[in-house]
Design brief:
CATH topology of the largest domain in chain B: Rossmann fold
CATH class of the largest domain in chain A: Alpha Beta
Shape of chain A: elongated
Largest sheet of chain B: 6 strands, mixed
Radius of gyration of chain A: 44 Å
CATH architecture of the largest domain in chain A: 3-Layer(aba) Sandwich
Strand content of chain A: 25-35%
Structural class of chain A: alpha+beta
Order of helices and strands of chain B: HEHEEHEEHHEHEHEEHEH
Radius of gyration of chain B: 23 Å
Number of strands of chain A: 37
CATH architecture of the largest domain in chain B: 3-Layer(aba) Sandwich
Helix content of chain B: 25-40%
Shape of chain B: elongated
Strand order of the largest sheet of chain B: 5-4-3-6-7-10
Largest interface: A-B, 35 and 56 residues
Oligomer: heterodimer
CATH superfamily of the largest domain in chain A: Class I glutamine amidotransferase (GATase) domain
Number of strands of chain B: 10
Distance between the termini of chain A: 67 Å
CATH superfamily of the largest domain in chain B: von Willebrand factor, type A domain
CATH topology of the largest domain in chain A: Rossmann fold
Number of domains of chain A: 4
Number of domains of chain B: 2
Number of helices of chain A: 10
Strand order of the largest sheet of chain A: 20-19-21-22-27-26-25-23-24
Distance between the termini of chain B: 37 Å
Chain lengths: 630, 294
Amino acid sequence: MFFLNLSLPEFLAILGSVSGVVVALYLLDRLRKKHIVPTLRFFVPTEKPPELKHRRRLQQPWSLFLQLISLLLLLLALAQLRLGSPDRSSRDHVLIIDTSAWMNARNGQVRLMDQARTAARNYVRTLPSSDRVMVVRADVLATPAILFESNRAKIQQAIDQTQPSAGPLNIDEALQFAARAQRLRAQRPGEIVFIGSGRIAADEVPSSIPPNFRYISISGPTEHVGLRKMGVRRSADDPDVWEIFVAVKNYGTKLRSVPLVVRFGGAPAGTRTFALKPGEEANAGFQYRTRAAGWLEARLIGADAFSQDTRAILELPPRKILPVTVYSNQPDLLRPVFHAIPGVEATVLPTARYDAKLNQGIVLLDRFSPPVPPTGPSIWLAPPERGSPITVQSTGTKLKLTQWLSDHPLAAGIRTKDLEIATSEVFRPAAGDAVIAESDGGPIIVARGGKSQMVVFGFQPVLSAMKYELTTPLLFANILRWMHPDTFRSWESTAGTVGTINVDLEAELDPSSIRVVTEEGQTLPFTVEGKTLRFFTATPGLVRILTGDRELVYSLTLPQPGDSDWKPANVRYGLPRRSPIGQSSRDIWQWLAILGAAGLLIDWLIYGRMRRMVRLAPAGSRSALWRKAS
Amino acid sequence: MTQEPLIDSAFLQKLERLAIQWQKSFPGLVGGHNTSRFAGPGQEFLDHRHFHHGDDLRAVNWRAYLRLEKLFLKMFQVEPRLPVRLLLDCSQSMATGEISKFQYARRLAAALCYVGLVRLDTICVQPFSQELGDSFLCGGGRHRFVSAVNFLTNLKPGGKTNFFEIARQFISKYPQAGLLIIISDFFDENDSSRPLQLLADFGHELMLVHLWADEDREPPWDGLLDLTDAETGSTLEIGFDSNARRNYTAAFDEFARGVQRIGLRNGGRYVGLSTNTAIEEAVFGPLVRSGGIQ
């Protein structure tokens, strides 16, 4: 037996105060009363003289006793006296509410989320008032909305504020989280209740189900077709062509024929009609040529109970063109080199027209040393000894190219050796300069980093033996990519859903060269295992993965409903009738309140004014007799 | 603060069909609704006098004018009009009780005044406590009722009741017998039956309206009581219980029966009223049944 609302000292203090007030009022009520009467002639003193009656003597002890007992009972009711042991009185339940994207689906006019909230409120109503409830919102993550709390208003508020997210349901993690929370925080574990549709991926069936699990199922629509994935990337053959990939899945149980429309900036880019069997996933590929930036939209035509995944939008960036200004008095020498590199627009000018203010992009100086060196990135081919940015040590003939700095991006993929250069300047590189190519006479290609990147050749490659080697265009391509990597970075965009994202890399990369950032610029943690990059986000939005020359953009705004409804066996289903687990203590405050009120009523009937009223009633009838007699 | 009116207009309309009744015939006590063995006013010729401006032309002796060409006015012997006398107890004992007996008595007196005025009776309201107070005489129709109400409203309770002195003064002041309505609780430190008998012996027809509050008849209190007489100020400490209450009520009833006997044995009437009874119910119930008004 214990009090739920008050501690024993509080109870005794209140009882003492109230009892004192009652006794004082009782004695005050029983004091000798003064009355003014019209005459004293009819008052006959009683047999006991009044002096014998002490003023403080209890004249109606049973009345006082009844009042005190009644007040004690009422106070016990207020303190919620319970029969049983306090440690076994209340239980801590975990209420998992499904907040996956599928809860946005409509069942007629009502969302599944609204049905789930109603079911959650009904479940809380069935619990005893002393039970505590922890509300957990489960989608890809299990997020506690409120810790174990007995305040029903706070629980109600947490339930009311629960909204569906954009991610799928990870029921396994939610159950593990609930079990862990009960183990660590609960005084006496109650039930783990899952309320939702339980729509999960086929491979995400929970490994184990807690024994105290209850499933309150929210049944939703069964027929649904949605976009599973959408991707876009530039064609390897033609940078102006976008290759579009769309995956559609039939989640329902019937054969569905669904038309798909792809639009770019509102203009049709392709259509396809899918005939999908139950559970079938189909892909469609499109090509669309454009250099402009804009929105690419894929939309499934037709009404559906879950409309969130019938439309996906990706943003296509504009085509980037790298300008190169070539100062050469022999324009035909280098023009083929730059034409061979896509995304480059070369402007060839004679050396006499050199103007540092007119320079755009990368500047190439062919055997020419300008009076004012370019401020941006530049390529120097056999500069005059006096104007060379790298000190010329000597000029050699018949130099044999012996070594490439293979770990430098400028020399990536270049293997040519034993190439004889007829005439070349040999440089004396400064500290920090990188010797890209070295001959038996010394460095002949040197690169300098920093704000003004430059690559200095000791010879004119097109006029040397390198002219007929693949090394020349490859080397220039490496130089342009090194100086302007954004232009040559491959770009892909994919629409998907939040959660754990696996990205296939082209090669095993150094994790330090990889960045995974959100559209707000925040860096996301990731892991690299072999050629697979893995990261997690629960927030819908854009995530950029920068891997050197490749940029992947994930638009994680496409919700993904589960493949099937999870229906575990051997668990309790539905709402409990009352008090889901047998109670060890019992509420008796209702009976105490009734007894207390009855006691006060009896006291009023026997000793209170009611008695006087009843007693006066015959007097009225007697007076009526008097009137009749008169 | 506005004072509650003694009587409302709806009740007054109901009172218009009533009339004060008396059983004896009194010389001078007139009323359109009562037959009398005595001649009425203006029937007996008394004398002539010269006509003065403003005199009633109907009383001119036209025969004498034709003969003497002078205006003479005939004068008749007018019978004195004897009013219905209403003795209203204004002692301090009337002010006790949860419902004030004094207020109840004033409302009852107002109702009787209106009944009398409507029937062209003359009413003399005579307040009293230890002696007779200033009286108020009204007659001549219902339009005089307002002044009667004003008089009753201005009355204040106070003093102790002395029926002997009242009877003595009343007999001296009003030697001609008539209908005497006494509204009182009849609580007197001395015996009130002998003065009432004296009034009856002097030929007055008594109509005793006995008022009491419920607590006057059955005090609701229990335990130790510290009682104070409202009129004399004497106190009494008493232990009061159900037995004492029974004894008290029996004594009160015996007292009331004594007052009733006085009223009835001299050809008068007795009406006992609790202040718990509504005025309308009291008038149309006990008062009408007693025959005092019909």
